[in-house]
C-alpha cells in the first residue's frame, strides 16, 4: 500500500515504525501534551512507545490512520495529522499535532485539508468529519475554523475532560475545499 498526499509545502504518508522517536520527542513536550494525555502533562517514554504502537495498529485494523507530515523543503518530520477513530470514539475524526518548533506556519490546517479530502474520497458515504477539541485549546480551535469546521453542541468525555465536538458536513466541505 503506497499512500502519499502532496500539499503545497507538505507530504503526508502513513505513520511508520521509523517515525517512533520523532513522535515520542514531539509528545514529550508539555505544550504539545497538554490536552493529549490523561494527566495533562507529558507521558513517560514507556507510555508514548505503547501509544505509538497503537497508532500503527490503528492502520492495520481500520485501513486508515494518522499520517506523518513531512516538510517538503527539508524532509523534516513535523507532526501527525489525519483520520482517527479508535473503539468508542464519537465519529471519524481528523486530528492534528505538530512539533512545537514548527507551530505557527499553518502546517496543521494545510495537512488537515489534504487528509480530509483523502478521507472523504475513501468513504463516499461519510456524512461528516469531526474533531474533538478541549475548550481551552485555542490553537486547535483556530485550526478547526480554518478548515471549515464548526463547534457543535455535542461533547465527548475523555479522561477528566469534556471535549467539544467540532464538525464539517461533507457537501459543504467539499464545495469549499474539494
Ligand atoms: C493545534 C496545533 C496542531 C496547530 O498547529 P499549527 O501548524 O501551528 O497551526 P497554525 O499555524 O494554523 O496555528 C494555529 C494557531 O496556533 C497559535 N499559534 C501559532 N503559532 C504559535 C506559537 N508559536 N506559539 C503559540 N501559539 C501559536 C495561533 O493562535 C494560531 O492561530 P492563528 O493563525 O489564527 O493566529 C499545534 O498548536 C499543536 O500541535 N498543539 C498541540 C497538540 C494539540 O493540541 N493538538 C490538537 C488536539 S485537539
From TrEMBL:
InterPro entries: Acyl_CoA_acyltransferase, GNAT_dom, N-acetyltransferase. GO terms for molecular function: acyltransferase activity, transferring groups other than amino-acyl groups. Residues 10-172 form the N-acetyltransferase domain. It comes from the Bacteria. Gene3D superfamilies: 3.40.630.30. The keyword Transferase applies. Keywords: Transferase. This is N-acetyltransferase. It comes from Hyphococcus luteus. The lineage of its organism: Bacteria, Pseudomonadati, Pseudomonadota, Alphaproteobacteria, Parvularculales.
Amino acid at each position: 500500500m503506497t499512500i502519499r498526499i502532496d500539499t503545497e509545502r507538505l507530504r503526508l504518508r502513513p505513520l511508520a515504525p521509523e517515525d517512533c522517536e520523532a513522535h515520542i520527542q514531539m509528545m514529550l513536550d508539555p505544550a504539545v501534551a497538554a490536552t493529549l494525555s490523561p494527566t495533562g502533562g507529558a507521558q513517560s517514554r514507556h507510555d508514548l512507545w505503547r501509544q505509538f504502537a497503537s497508532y500503527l495498529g490503528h492502520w492495520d485494523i481500520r485501513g486508515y490512520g494518522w499520517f506523518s507530515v513531512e516538510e517538503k523543503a527539508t524532509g523534516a518530520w513535523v507532526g501527525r495529522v489525519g483520520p482517527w477513530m479508535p473503539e468508542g470514539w464519537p465519529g471519524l475524526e481528523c486530528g492534528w499535532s505538530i512539533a512545537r518548533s514548527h507551530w505557527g506556519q499553518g502546517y496543521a490546517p494545510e495537512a488537515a485539508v489534504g487528509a480530509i479530502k483523502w478521507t472523504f474520497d475513501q468513504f463516499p458515504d461519510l456524512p461528516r468529519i469531526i474533531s474533538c477539541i478541549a475548550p481551552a485549546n485555542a490553537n486547535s480551535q483556530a485550526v478547526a475554523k480554518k478548515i471549515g469546521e464548526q463547534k457543535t453542541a455535542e461533547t465527548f468525555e475523555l479522561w477528566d475532560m469534556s471535549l467539544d465536538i467540532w464538525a464539517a458536513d461533507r457537501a459543504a466541505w467539499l464545495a469549499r475545499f474539494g
